[in-house]
């Protein structure tokens, strides 16, 4: 089949987006590389927006999934008991929960991040008898009406077509610059009975904001929120959909912060292989759902149970992977610093394998990413003004490939700078 | 692994539901049959709530999917162009749209029915500049806050934890019994400028209500809604998530009604194999989305593109399958009539391969389904009071298996009747 | 000062309305008559939309109010105890509550009907812990956002500028014509747990709909609502703002229906003299307000306490006034029948001194009222299409004046008919 | 009638409030003094919460009102043209608007502040096509559902019984202490397209917060809001219900700030005599109401037109009154400083004749006010924690009476201090 894209114009909705940045047709992917139908090879620094933390088509996941299919294993089982689900839950308990002394129940939600977030919001309201979810500037939690109300982006919010309800947006750490303590403002608002901020059912926060510009909350900030949540009778919801599953260097992004969120939405890389899968981790005392009170057809994607279990067993049985990630983070920081040094006023954002460069504006960031793509690197922007060039390479990317990709990025920046200067 | 279910109590949320009706652990499925870990065989008259219209693990879909995986085909590609997606869209255009003279664009939404419904509601509001979506008694459209507002079930609605907004519930055909014309009531409400019913952005209706009790709207009713929609400047959204993909005997449930819905949410069996997948069909003139205005990570599940294409090519290239379904519908009606004859006041509900028996109450229906399971038949209830025993067998169920399953159902009804009489 | 109206164009908002129907400047009023600055005399069949049930400037109310002012009686006392308020409450207890065996507490709300309605809606939600107020087609309850949500009129609702929440509109008696039993529809909706109608906090109904077209609910309908409210744990709110204070022939419009509403908003004629005043009658068991939980500066208009007490003492100490009203109702019906006989298809609406003629359309009704004004009669339309010519003469209008006014109306109808025929 | 208050317990709702602070029964009032039925005299430093800026029963207003009543002047005229209304509008134009070069139209709303605020919110939404009204911490705007959403007080908000919509609460000047610039925070929130703060229809602010603790916005802050409103396409609504009508020393509280609010709700003292009356001033270009789009029975209280006109003519024809107020403000500040000096950490709040002392806590402030009442001074608290002792004496209070009242306050503070020390 030729690289003819007319079918998309004719038959796919204008809502499509990433394909506009990467105007080719892909047909093969392995590890951190993708190939298009013309045989061109690309390094993937987007990784399905962090859905492919273990790279494309991990050999072991492929093998297990093929074996499952060949054995007529369950493909779709609603939320019935299946051997596959049992094995996954057992692995999750043994490999993730127990070693971290975490006690959570797994709620299989519809296989989208937004569904897990909606389940969390509904449950927080049910547990507290309150409606107001405190969310944060630049937060991104999903497109369905409940989660959209918790999302900051004006364009996305306008897509709702009617006023969004049930949330109040609080300043994320650093939202007003380094001299204003967001946590203190939030505490003052909550302590003032005439602030107009209704008693919170929950704080809903991404420990590292993926879409919002790689803003990473500090341990102090997260601990402060945990304290405020307790003080005001609210739950703490850590949305680890993009930052979880190892992206920041540990399985959970908040793992070393000494906090225990009440609810934890997971999705994206949770299936290991990029299959649709989402879940909400719930502290047992909050698991007051009635059967089917939040239901859905695809709760639990059985193929994803297969690959998710492999991901846990292969990468998280000991701390080898985490140590590897720590090293790569250093390499990434160093590579991005070189990039930032080329751009006046540029700063580094994020942490772990979730870092980027704030280049100061969306136009420049877009030009850099477009140039990268021409040079064989898939990379995207982030931030309220699309001003951050964001690296979300698979966690399994080899040091060499990481270096190659960062090299392309550096070259692209230099070329864009040259073009810019020529134009001035 | 033994059939030990303790992990579910320990680690899965109380929200789980179907597993309570079918207390065993499944590990294999093919066509219309499932097997548990102890080797027990079950006939599946639930079919993933109509997500497995082509049966479990269709051989051709399995083969194509395995081939795709082995070739390192894209597993997750966000909404980028992929050869796989292109092939799917082309097949959908050729096999479904063109022969039916239908002109729609496909919006890949998050891979859940509720996400496709939310996208439809948002788009209808955007197109009309209005907010009020007219939905129907006993309707079921999903669990996220937008779609939940369009769902009738009180238990599900209460799960929202706060008032739901943006919808008005209208009486479905026959909601007030045979002597009250729902369509006329709706028209009078809309014609009265002081009715308090705000100008509608859309009608959102399931042509056959799956969860609501297999209520099948007539051609007259659907045409009437289409007329009212036009008259009042509203869109018509036909939610074909459960009733579509052949369930009623044709690919779309409304196909022979002479109407052209503006928006058509699809999910459940759209992937062919039970993989998470959903889409919204949009008339081109309404496709006014801005890029990424409704986005999401798993829009387009590439594995599902593979199997969905096979499903189209295998079952819908000509009308053989439809003719087969027409015959099976007759067989199903006849079998269910025999069941209904055993229960005083029982009536048949639904149409096509989406039929059931209203046995008059939820307790009886529940007892029948429980007895069926003991006898090796997986079947569930439906309806506002769970009063309908609902058959959603795979469309590919052989005549013999259909007969066997219906036979179990009949026996179960007789046994329950006997037990009841003994108790009285 | 000349009858120069330019100041209104220059300085009064376009929201002004009644002055457009009656384009002159009034400066004196007594009983059922008004005079403009040019000395023209008008019979008043509008009576401040039923705010002047005892006529303009009742001699005894004038005297009492002047005496109060001259004695430096309290004009504004917030909701402090005043001798005047005490006297009013005592009179209300003795003259209205005790003889009717009614046990209610009086909540002084802001002095507008809409404020009393909002207080009722808030209290019903507080008492039941539910949010959904069931209101009715063609209902009118006020312009502030809570009451506006309970109002049916589309134009008024659009004025809200955003979606209105917290109410569901039910069909008033006869809303779908004589063959459809609204009460039965409502009961079916409430009995169906999947109807999408959330559990009601209250029914909010005008026993006779003033703005909605003089639709008078029957005793059976009101009793049915009372029964449904009890069955479903909802309160019954009888909005007697326009129909109360004698307008239907008894002090409360529902007085002879054998029902006991939980909450009764009163306003309009409650002050006796047309002064701003409103209150909410609350069954003692529902009076769970915390102090100042619903507050406001003008709760309790002390001047109105003076005149309201006179009204009670003068008109309601025995049943003479009610008997007089019964006679006048007969006269009014008879006069309106003569009017209706002139117009093909016209029907009588309403009851007591709250009657009118549905002339079939708003254009005709408007023409009739305009002609009336030219002939010295102030009268207005009502109804979803402004199709009802509505008589709201002061209850104290003499038989002779009533006859004179009805005579003008009859003439006006004939003249309009003649003009119409000439034009055809 | 004896001072028997049992009728209130028996027949007035628990919502009553001020009467609990002042447990006696009043029957006469003149100027700045009130008398109870036992003949006790009280100095009134509450003035109907600023509704009696010209004192109780102003001689000239009494005379004009009595003359109007005796002449059978219109008492209630809906919103028809009346000689009385014409005279009022003309006086308002001549005395208030013209000398200030202000061009506004007067919208007669229901005669409560909350109704004027609701009209403003509705109109701002209509003009801008947006829904979000930005309101402020500690703001108070009314009890009906629209205005309540703009009010900060948690107790009042909870009275709503359901989530409130359509507003976002911003920090008032100084809300986070002197080191955080609220205006800058607001600007940053609005400039950030991902802040989650929807595009504003309006800013709604009290230039001096009456209920919220006498927080007075500076000229810089108000000018900043005016600038932000313009920048972001929003209207500026200055709620001058409590701070207007001379309370701060000029007719409008913002008069010397060089800003031109788009909408100005007025009520409380606008009638001059404490009669229910409210209006919304609207810049002509925003007066896009359709006739009756916001209506109501008591729009325009004709008695209030009479007294309101007298108030304008008597007090505002020249700047003598303003100069007098300036002097009294100095006296008030000085008296309150003496009070503050008695209490550790106490600070002065407010400006003009709207000043008070923040005594640090509600218990102490309550004890002081209670002691004042025992000593013959009516005075109330204000603030989120009721921590401000607030002086709202009539503007016409003589210097001698002001001194006497302040003397009582000082004594009360000393006595409470002594009691406190004794208890420690």
From TrEMBL, chains A, B, C, D:
Keywords: Aminotransferase, Pyridoxal phosphate, Transferase. The keyword Magnesium does not apply. One of its GO terms (biological process) is ectoine biosynthetic process. SUPFAM superfamilies: PLP-dependent transferases (SSF53383). It is an enzyme of class 2 (transferase). Pathway: Amine and polyamine biosynthesis; ectoine biosynthesis; L-ectoine from L-aspartate 4-semialdehyde: step 1/3. CDD domains: OAT_like (cd00610). This is Diaminobutyrate--2-oxoglutarate transaminase. It comes from Citreimonas salinaria.
